[in-house]
Every structure is written in C-alpha cells, then in structure tokens.
Amino acid sequence: MPAMISNLLSITPDARTKIDGVRAFNEFPDAVLRVRVLAKEGRQFRYEIALEDPRERADEDLAVESDGLTVVLDPTSASDLAGATIELDPAVVGGGLRIDNPNEGWQDPVARAVQEVIDRQINPGVGSHGGQVTLVDVKDGTAFMRFGGGCQGCSAVSVTLKQGVETAVRAAVPAITAIVDVTDHGAGENPYYQHGH
Questions:
Q1: Residue 197, pLDDT above cutoff 50
Q2: Were both Cys, which of 11, 12, 94, 144 would link to 136 (CB 3.0–4.6 Å)?
C-alpha cells in the first residue's frame, strides 16, 4: 500500500526502497526528494524527480515529511500532482521511478476536443511525413500548438497549419477561433528542408 504524503502524493513501498537506497549509496541521507511538473505536452506531463540538498528549498515550496523522507513541491506542481503516486517503472532497467497521475490529460472540454482531433485526424497525416503536432494549451478560444519531428523547420508548415490543422480543428471544435504555432522552427532539422536553401 502506498504511503500518502499529506493527501497530495503517495509513494509505493518499492519506490521508497529505491529512493532510500540511492540516498544511502550517495551518502546523502538528508537529501530531500524534489518532485516537479516541468511541462505539459499533449496529454502528458513531463516530470523531474530528483534528490537535492535540503538547503536548496525556496520559501514558497511545500515540504511534507513521511517517515524520514521530505518531499518538496513547488506550489504549481503541488496542484498538478494531487492524488498522484510515485512508483517503480518496470520498463527501466535497475528500477527507475515514474509518476502515475490522475491529473494528466486535459480537464477543459474544449482542449479535450482539440486533442481528439489531433490524435484522430492530424497526427496520422503528418506522422506519415515524420511529423507530430502537440497541443500546448487552449486559452480564450485559441489553441496553441507545437509542430515537432519532420514538421519542425519544414518550409510547408504554414500551409499545413492553415489548410490542414486549422481547418480540421475549427470544423470539429467551433469554440476554437484561432490557432497559434509556438514552435521554434529555426531549431528544427527536416529531411525535406535544409536551412539556407
């Protein structure tokens, strides 16, 4: 049974054993466990789980103690992690950690509808060219998207955005009135387009 940490987060016994083992191996028994949501990408969060010196805590951090282990969360991550469980990841050799989080995904029905269009219509099409579209956020009728893979740096991305993505999303989700591409296309490499050509 996972140990609850102040009703925010739980840690399975196997994960706790792994954390304690790393603390002991590194001769850092006072290390606190920093858990942070780094970004939301599509339906998933990207996390950081790290041991750190307890003196690195910021004043606004939340810290909860559980049987000699202090878990530190920044306020934004705390709300995104409510009800989550830290567990061992069986896919990682040597037993890495992962987070099972019921808060992942889009809570907003408009964002969920846009994600559905991306998953069912857009990504299968751009995927055939090595591309991928990720919903970053939805605010005030605007969908913010990132184009990755073969789409990042592609000279045809504006055509794809206007004629493909925007048309499909606006037809399926009338609440969306605009789509903004937040991709740094200058950082991408595309097999169909080379910078400077």
A1: no
A2: 144
Q: Widest CA span of the chain, in angstroms?
A: 61
Question: What is the domain extent for residue 167?
Answer: 109-187
Within the chain, strands assigned E span 3-5, 9-11, 32-41, 44-52, 62-66, 69-73, 84-89, 96-100, 131-139, 142-149, 178-181
Beta carbons of 163 and 138 less than 8 angstroms apart: no
pTM higher than 0.85: no
110, 140 contact by CB (below 8 A): no
- Give the C-alpha distances (Å, rounded to integers) separating 7 from 34, 82, 165, 180: 17, 7, 41, 37
Residues 96 and 14 in one domain: yes
Residue 163 DSSP class: I
